[in-house]
Write a structure and sequence with these properties.
The protein contains 1 helix and 12 strands. The chain is mainly beta and 176 residues long.
């Protein structure tokens, strides 16, 4: 997930937090990943490059059990002008044999996550929603699966959800 917090009262400076939940028996993080601010600036494609641009040069990985770790990395960026920006992270790090992605050839598909922010003149400090419940559930074949992300918006904005086709890059949907 990617969250954004406006950190300047007078400018268009934001702090972005990228949170990745990783299967510790699966793929590594930072092997070709690119963080894109949607305004021409990108960071990556190596873990060294990501760390060099991160706030305090910090990439945190914490094992949370059940063969899962959570990776957190923050970047600051100042936008040139108001507008709508799509901020994304793309990396070739999917686990193999996810049967509903690419017919089971999921390792050939890049992992992609994005968020959009709208910056309007006169807006105050508006932030993206935060997901408060980690997506580390285990689903069972043939059983209904439910996950409540626990979305919370500190600004009091109304929130809505919709299912979308997973992407493998900006504007490129995965063919299932």
């Amino acid at each position: 997930e990617i969250t954004a917090v406006r950190i300047s009262q007078t400018g268009l400076r934001y702090r972005f937090t990228l949170t990745i939940y990783r299967d510790t028996e699966g793929v590594e993080f930072g092997q070709g990943g690119v963080f894109n601010f949607g305004q021409g600036r990108t960071i990556g494609p190596t873990l060294t490059a990501l760390r060099a641009e991160a706030v305090d040069n910090l990439v945190s990985e914490v094992n949370i059990g059940n063969n899962t770790s959570v990776i957190t990395i923050q970047f600051d960026h100042t936008f040139d002008a108001p507008g709508v920006y799509v901020i994304s992270f793309t990396e070739q790090n999917r686990n193999p044999q996810i049967i509903n992605l690419g017919g089971g050839a999921s390792e050939e598909l890049a992992f992609h996550v994005e968020t959009a922010i709208r910056i309007q003149a006169g807006d105050g400090l508006n932030n993206t929603p935060v997901l408060t419940i980690p997506p580390i559930d285990r689903a069972c074949l043939g059983s209904r699966f439910v996950h409540n992300a626990g979305a919370f918006d500190a600004d009091g904005d109304s929130l809505a959800y919709k299912l979308v086709t997973p992407l493998q890059d900006r504007g490129i949907a995965i063919q299932t």
